Give the backbone structure.
Amino acid sequence: MLVIQQVAGRVIENSIVDDENDMQLRLAFDFDGVIVDDAAEKVYQKNKDLQAYHLSEQANAEVPLNPGPLLDIFKKLSFFQKLEQKKLAEDNSYKQILKTAIITARNAPAHARMINTLKSWGITVDEVFLLGGIEKKRILEVMKPHMYFDDQTLHLNATSIPQVHIPFGVANAEISQTATMLVETGSINEENICATSNL
């Protein structure tokens, strides 16, 4: 049974061509609202003030952010990556199977809090893209991840990349309110909420 406060993902429909010769699994994640909660995003959304957001992130650079909806899976992926790093240290001909990336709109000075948060959890990541306003689609279409997770649908526009919308936090307040209203009015039950195409 799905609880309204519980986060689920919605796969975005698009056309994908899989390369059968590609033996690497690449997974890419947004940071805020996906790996961590949306506390920093709330600061920005309050007044749409980038300077206030940067000042807040600088002041809290050493304070780790709280877990987000996909932290658990990200930690498990990091565990497997550590096993791969150990194997590579033993055998330099080993080819890495799993590759992770964080693709975020954060940039300096907000990057420090992200790095310190990941360090506090003992998580390593292969690549980090600090885009600061550059369209994520440009990175995604070069990296070609097998799955990309983001909490904001405006970043889920790479038509040849499998993408999952994580309807969490302030960026999805309208979606959450609509889902709650539909359940409360009996228009939809909790078990079917993820199957509803417009949620």
Observations:
- Confidence is low (pLDDT under 50) at residues 190-199.
- The CA atoms of residues 143 and 161 lie 10 Å apart.
- The chain has one domain: 10-195.
- Helices lie at 39-47, 50-59, 71-90, 111-120, 136-143, 173-184.
